[in-house]
Amino acid sequence: MNARQRRGLILLLLSALCAAAAFVGVLSVIRNVESKVGPEKTAYRLKTDVAAYKALDPGQFEKVAMPERWLPATAVTRLDDLSGKIAVTPLHKGSLLQDDMIVDRPALKPGEQEIAIMIDAATGVAGKINPGARVNIYATFDGKRPEDKPVSKVIVAGAQVIDVGKLTPLEAKDPGDTTAARRDGEAVPITFALGTRDAQRVAYAESFASHVRLALLAPGSQAAIPPGERTYTLDGDK
Q1: Pairing relation of β-strands 40-46 and 134-141?
Q2: pLDDT (average), residues 19-38
């Protein structure tokens, strides 16, 4: 082997050593990154905005993989956890879903039943009544005879709202029908948790009252109303 061949062999060996060193360096970087990132875990991100107190649907979320060490402890990792839940605050598109953003939907108690009625959007809801709220339900009835005066009654005191539906356009079926639920305009379906007697009162009011309105109670307010204050006419102010 001459001098030129020896130099070529030495350069070849040096190249092989450099390649091996580079490979070892890459492996070291990969191991370092893996040690910092760790295993990944499934989480869920919102695909769209969700209003507060609205029921959650799996279709509103997309699955994402995140390093477990960077995932908040409150992150929702199973879509099954959304069953029966509502948003407690407005949720924004792109946000990572966490369990402190959601609460259980108000549930029925023993002896209660769900009843839903359409409430005029302008006079009865105004965007402030949400699931979990308690309201007084007022109904106004026209006089049956010309000499009879209209009367306003508290149909149910302290009714619990368990769901608020979407704004719905209404069309009058009968031009001569003045019932609130049959007039032109917009209404919102409100679902209440009520006992049988109160559910009957609400159903009667929706069918025969000229107006049905809701009055939102402040948290902790007493729902009881004295019997003498449950019915009102203008004569009562004289």
Answers
A1: unpaired
A2: 67
Q: Do 72 and 117 share a domain, yes or no?
A: no
Q: What is the pLDDT of residue 59?
A: 87
DSSP-derived 3-state class of residue 163: strand
Q: Are residues 57 and 159 in the same domain?
A: no
Q: Can you tell me whether residue 180 is helix, strand or coil? A: helix
Cβ–Cβ contacts within 10 Å for residue 149, how many?
Answer: 10
- Model confidence pLDDT, tens digit, residues 60-69: 999 888 877 7
Asked whether 139 and 211 are in contact (CB, 8 A), the reply is yes
Asked whether the predicted pLDDT for residue 182 surpasses 50, the reply is no
pLDDT (0 to 100) of residue 185: 72
Spatial contact of 49 and 91, defined as CB atoms under 8 Å apart: yes
How many Å apart are CA 157 and CA 107, to the nearest integer? 19
* Least trusted range by pLDDT, from 42-56, 162-176, 201-215: 162-176
- What is the model's pTM? 0.59
Diameter of the chain by CA atoms? Answer: 130
Examine the domain organization and report whether 142 and 46 are in the same domain: no
Last residue of a domain, one of 75, 104, 133: 104
